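Components:
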Amino acid sequence: MSGYFKELVDGTNSLVAGLRVTIKYLFKPVVTMQYPHVSVRMTPRFRGHIDLVADDNGESLCIVCGMCQKACPSDCITVAGEKPEGAKKKMLTEYRLDFTKCSLCGLCVESCKPGAITFSKDFNLAGLTKEEFIFDLKQRLEERKR
Amino acid sequence: MNPEVLRLIGYVVAIIAFVALNAAMLVWMERKVAGHIQLRIGPKEVGPFGLLQSFADGIKLMTKQLIVPEGADVPLFKIAPMLVMIPAVMCFVTIPFSETLAARNINVGLLLIFAIASVNILALLLGGWASNNKYAVISAARAVSQNVAYEIPMLITAITVVMFTGTMNLNEIVMQQGGGFWNWNIMPLTKNFGMLLVMPVSFVIFFICSMAETNRAPFDLGEAESELVAGFHTEYSGMGFGLFFLGEYANVFIGCSLATILFLGGWQCPFGLFPGIHWFLLKVYFLIFVVMWVRWTYPRTTIYGLLNLSWKFLIPISLFNLVLTGALIKVFSR
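Structure:
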């Protein structure tokens, strides 16, 4: 008989405890982010496609050593450069990323000695053709400069 | 034309409109409450605060084809959704929304509501049986056993109120509770002090039973979507399903309004000021909010747990309550 009342009291208590939890949650602020209406800030370690890093003048840090191109296991990166008359180092003329093949492994970023490439925070990358995913990173850098 | 006929037509139209609007708003409210309890927002795109979402859903349901499954008992299959809706609408006939606003003030109003409301379960059984679907039949059988188990304590607690008030006329029951919350049946401090022992317990039992009667979570074994697809309305499409849905919300409203009338003073103001329909609706919608709060707090019970709760706890306690009520009325009543 005492077990009967214990069950009754314990059951009621646990029910009330549950109600207390949910009413607290009812008045907490919602965590839903209204995605298309508000832009999402990506976390610092988010891996988007790679992007060129600009120095203070907005120029690329790249020295056209080609290490990233060699490190890439999927052959996504094409780097080209030339040494103009009288210049001390090679200048970057082309940096293309074939994002259709990239698996975001980050070996290129690790292999880059001058720290000229980094992960971007772009995630709105929907497109209709394959060509849209071959990024001209040099052009992106120049667009950022403007 | 006879003004009585006009009055009746007016009430029928008003009640049906109220049932439909009420269901639409309750679906919205349910989704909002569920959303915020789970730290989501709930519907927000259709209309301000998503208020028109239910109407959009209603239009969608009405445009859908009504599919009758192969091997179904066609007449019964088609009658069942109507049989859910008709008793739900009929129950509104005797509910006093305010002192003067009741379609019919019948002196056995309480009995009438219980009698009509019990047709609802027959409709669920018909719907489940006629669908020719094993899930629907299992669900219908469960719903019936559940209703049998919960109708008993519900009626017994209603009897305690009837013994105390001495009438089954709902309007009169509310009248007796006028003057302030200390006169409400849930804590009749002035009329019969001893009833303070009985009435709160009666109220809780009545409320639990009305939740179980309407097949609401955590007692929604009839629907049990994780095991029975959608229960008795598995095979219903379009507005057939819509009517089951409307009926459920109408029944929730009726259950909560009965609890309000019997225990919380109906349209009476808690402080004896300006009684009227606003107090009735305020109390009813508060109780409905509690029903939703409960739904989004607890997981579904098992069929054994459900029947145990009724036969082991609710029925013995309500019977004890009934005996105690008789004794207290004999001892304390003036």
